[in-house]
Fold this protein.
Amino acid sequence: MVTYIWDKIYFIGTSHISINSVNEVKSFIKNNKPDMVAIELDHLRYISINSKENSKGISFKDIRYIGFKGYLFGIIGHYVQKKIGNMVGVDPGSEMITAIDLCKEHKIPLFLIDQEIKITLKRLSKLMTWKERFTIVYDIIISPFRRNIEGVDFKKIDLRKVPDSKFIETMMFIMKKRYPSFYKSLIDERNKVMAKNLYRIKQDNPNKLILAIVGAGHIQGIKKIVERDYNQISKS
């Protein structure tokens, strides 16, 4: 389902472990035949997602650049996503792989619009505070004993589906409140990079139909940026 449209850029907000997202991407590309596709990947993650030999994308030697905290988060994040993917029977990033394969099949130009993962993890390493570390540890320890966080009942979440906009908005609020460095480095800064890259693609291809495939949690942030910063420029 198209979540947002901005001047011939059609956005599909996905869950990286949802079969629904895979089907939505497949359906849109086959039925609408976009002139180009932009996806929420950088070059390293693009290689990683297509290579079982380098499935983590980052290695121990990267600690010197991204910092230990960023490296540790990358490893844990990869493990958790893989674990949840196994639970629902969908490999993490399957919707991106589907888009990549269909672009190859139909000879559709593909653009990687995300910030380099090493830059993101380096920023996270730099911004993360001791308070956030303690909050994370506390949340992990206490999570089996409480039903919800900030009013969200996580036991009722269907991981096979893309969360609705209200749930996403609530999760963004929780992340911003409890883990501000995570929100800034993993969401806010990447939204700015992806919005800027999409605008450049649109500038170079003003009359083309572009499909942008990004995580559902990025849609509202990118929408605010393009409508605030790029609408007037694009119409001039």
